[in-house]
Amino acid sequence: MKELVVISGKGGTGKTSVVASFASLPGRKVIADCDVDAADLHLVLSPSVVETHEFSGGVTAILDQKKCDGSGKCLEVCRFEAVSRTHVNGKWVYSIDSMACDGCGVCAYFCPSRAIAMQAVESGKWFVSDTKHGPLVHARLGIAEESSGKLVTRVRTEAQRVAKDGGFDLIVVDGSPGIGCPVIASITGVDLALIVTEPTLSGQHDLKRVAEVASGLKVGTAVCINKWDINLEAAQSIQEWCHGKGIPVVGLIPYDDAVTAAQVMGLSVVECSDGGAASCIIDLWTRVSGMLGA
Ligand code: SF4
Ligand code: SF4
Q1: Which of 98, 99, 283, 292 is surrounded by the most beta carbons within 10 Å?
Q2: Chosen domain end from 104, 122, 140
């Protein structure tokens, strides 16, 4: 089984449009949406959810007032200032702020009355869905949650399970943007990382950073320049940099109004156009599939 991840140094480079097109091109594959902070692949793939699972990215301390003897030990040991106390009817009442709690468990360990329990917190949901182009594994992170790296790992693991159970040879991952924990979770151990970039100064900067991350993880990379013709000089500079680093540039997608039109229609560009962007994405898919031996 091969795993391809499509990533970008930041959001908004056209990464998801490329993944949506790959999903709708011929060939059996499982799609994994690991852009869990801004999941929008479902807008194009219109999934029918067949499995919903809760995701817990951590634990939080829960204080049982009935068991608490007011020792104050939890307030003393908590380094995250998550424990507070209020004077009520002549005695101190202790409470824990779940937003401030780091889940370290120290208070539960030291509580002499066993009044504190560590409880799993639901921080998101993940889903397995059917789409007209095959199975999609995707997720939704809870508001203000920070466990996206763990959720990305869960989505990838489940995509691998779905692929194995269904006899699929290829998983296409819509990776997290940026260079943080979620992108590391998106690309670790994949067969190829396709980096989608744009010909701008910031695009070039972000490309270098994400390529460094991939190289540090020993993941092979290829580059695709989206809207390459909006700045020929920058596009040239990116190609020269890639050449110097031995990174193949496998696609040059031109600016094309059909991409936005496809998004408005809730379709991938290759489904509703045979123009410049669509035909370049088809060529890109052929090259990338060739690199994967798929
Ligand atoms: S350590 Fe336990 S018994 Fe002491 S104040 Fe905290 S919760 Fe109550
Ligand atoms: S689990 Fe850790 S962070 Fe949370 S209240 Fe207890 S000591 Fe503080």
Answers
A1: 292
A2: 122
Pick the residue whose CA is nearest to atom 2 on ligand 2: 104
Tokens for 215?
């190289």
Q: How do the pLDDT tens digits run along the chain, 294 residues long?
A: 999 999 987 777 788 889 999 999 988 999 999 887 777 788 888 889 999 998 887 889 999 999 999 999 999 999 999 999 999 888 999 999 988 999 999 999 999 999 999 998 877 889 999 998 999 999 988 765 565 788 889 999 999 999 999 999 999 999 887 777 888 888 999 999 999 999 998 889 999 999 999 999 999 999 999 999 999 999 999 999 999 999 999 999 999 998 888 888 888 889 888 888 999 999 999 999 999 886
With a 6 A CB cut-off, is 83 part of the ligand 2 pocket?
A: yes
| CATH code of the domain in which 93 resides | 3.30.70.20
Q: Which residues have CB under 6 Å of ligand 1?
A: 63, 68-74, 94, 111-113, 115-116
Ordered strands of the 30-33 beta sheet:
48-63, 116-131, 134-141, 30-33, 170-174, 2-7, 192-197, 221-226, 249-253
Mutation to probe ligand 2, out of 96, 97, 99, 118 (largest number of atoms < 8 A from CB):
96
Q: Looking at the structure, tell me whether residues 109 and 226 fall in a common domain.
A: no
Domain annotation covers residue 53: no
Q: Assess whether 81 and 204 both reside in one domain.
A: no
Are 139 and 126 within 8 A, CB to CB?
yes
Per the structure, the count of domains in the chain is 2
Q: Residue 55: CB partners within 8 Å, gap ≥ 6?
A: 122, 123, 124, 125, 126, 139, 147, 150, 151, 154
Measured from the Cα of 116, ligand 2's closest atom is: 6
Query: Which ligand is located closest to the Cα atom of residue 94?
Result: 1
CA 163 / ligand 1 centre spacing (Å): 48
Q: State the pTM of this model.
A: 0.82
CATH number of the domain where residue 193 is located? 3.40.50.300
